[in-house]
Design goal:
The chain is an alpha/beta fold. A nine-stranded mixed beta sheet has the order 3-2-1-4-7-9-8-10-11, with helices on both faces. The two termini are 49 Å apart. The model has no long low-confidence stretch (mean pLDDT 94).
């Protein structure tokens, strides 16, 4: 699919309606039937777009995804709608009325910004991607607020806009790019663009090294439903001092701000184990959670918090620990059989053992009504298995 234009014609739109919801197993039969009356290339493009729309439902919801236009990379790299909406609301609260959205992709963030009432210049240098962004603005009734421009973002003058949003490409021919200076455009260019604007937000990979965060930026790690989605570097927020670090959990939002606490002390295994949210861990805010829980670490290098008291918190999942064993598969297998365990969840942190491998060896024939969670980790440096259940 190198051109969206045929799909935007009346015939193309009719074909998109005709193939909506086609199951993979039915594609050949549907294509054979439709090619009797329509060009083969157009039928293939419609079926390809239908597949992309189905994949996009997880990010955009069925209603929007069913009207939007996607590219394979656009589905993979676009921002989840809930995250984009959260970021757009933060910009709106700052009084931002216009945003230059650089590296806009298929327009996911531009859509969220426009729905927040913000005027958007959406820029992407790839012709097909820009065409998808333009088609999406039109399909969702937002063309009046979104101007799509096909251009190199380094050539765009952003001085007329209240804020700049930059989402550099973080994938190359060999997969994900981990070096921020290998982004396209590089992080250093994005930071300079941010410094020229009254407000700015730079979307970066959640694994960005903390030392790569500019001193004047606020760094925020965002998770949605427990899955870490991205990090954002904010400039000109006014609500937070430069260097502020925070973790935001969606839905909510719930935000935990860093207070510069020292690392928690290591304690012996208590009655409860807390697994901090991934955004909390990425933001290096485990100490803030441990203080809230009056807990300590299982190990100085492991982000598990232990405590003898149950304190509900949105920033960590709590488990009641029933057993502590040295790493021994045979003992674990015998214990699971004795407890009549039929469902085994394996989590690991600080262990080289793969969860699926342990599950296969320890519970080769699941039987029984009970469920157990096993943590493969270290406690004060020693390989340890902790058994428990969520509370």
């Amino acid at each position: 699919m190198n051109d969206l234009a045929p799909l935007l014609t009346p015939e193309g739109r009719a074909l998109l309606d005709a193939v909506r919801g086609t199951a993979p197993a039915d594609e050949l039969a549907v294509a054979t039937r439709l090619r009797r009356e329509h060009p083969a290339g157009l039928v293939s493009a419609a079926l390809g777009q239908a597949r992309l729309r189905q994949r996009a439902e997880a990010k955009f919801g069925a209603e929007d995804a069913g009207r939007m236009f996607f590219t394979p990379n656009g589905v993979e790299q676009s921002t989840r709608a809930s995250v984009a909406a959260y970021r757009a609301e933060r910009l709106r609260e700052l009084g931002v009325a216009s945003v230059a959205d650089l590296c806009c992709g298929i327009g996911g963030d531009a859509i969220a910004l426009a729905r927040a009432g913000i005027r958007v210049l959406a820029v992407d240098r790839d012709p097909l991607t820009a065409a998808a962004a333009r088609a999406n603005a039109d399909a969702l009734g937002l063309a009046g607020l979104i101007e799509v421009r096909e251009a190199d973002v380094t050539d765009v003058d952003t001085t007329a806009y209240d804020a700049v949003f930059v989402d550099p490409a973080r994938r190359g021919g060999r997969g994900r790019i981990f070096d921020p200076e290998a982004y396209s455009p590089p992080l250093s260019w994005a930071v300079e663009a941010a410094r020229k604007a009254p407000h700015a937000a730079l979307k970066v990979a959640p694994g960005i090294p903390h030392e790569a965060v500019p001193a004047e930026a606020e760094a925020e790690w965002i998770s949605d439903g427990g899955d870490v989605k991205e990090a954002v570097l904010w400039f000109g927020t006014r609500t937070a001092a430069p260097g502020t670090v925070r973790a935001t959990l969606l839905p909510g939002p719930r935000t935990l701000r860093g207070r510069g606490l020292p690392d928690p002390e290591v304690r012996s295994v208590g009655r409860y184990l807390y697994e901090p949210d991934g955004a909390v861990i990425r933001a290096h805010l485990v100490a803030e959670v441990a203080e809230e829980l009056d807990g300590g670490l299982l190990d100085a290098t492991i982000a598990y918090v232990t405590s003898d008291e149950l304190r509900p918190t949105p920033y960590a999942s709590a488990y009641e620990i029933t057993d502590r064993l040295p790493f021994n598969v045979k003992k674990l297998k015998a214990l699971l059989r004795e407890r009549e365990v039929g469902i085994l969840t394996v989590k690991k942190r600080g262990s080289a053992v793969e969860p699926e491998e342990l599950r296969r060896k320890a519970l080769p024939k699941p039987q029984g009504p009970n469920a157990v969670t096993v943590f493969l980790t270290r406690a004060a440096g020693a390989p340890t298995m902790l058994l428990g259940h969520p509370v």
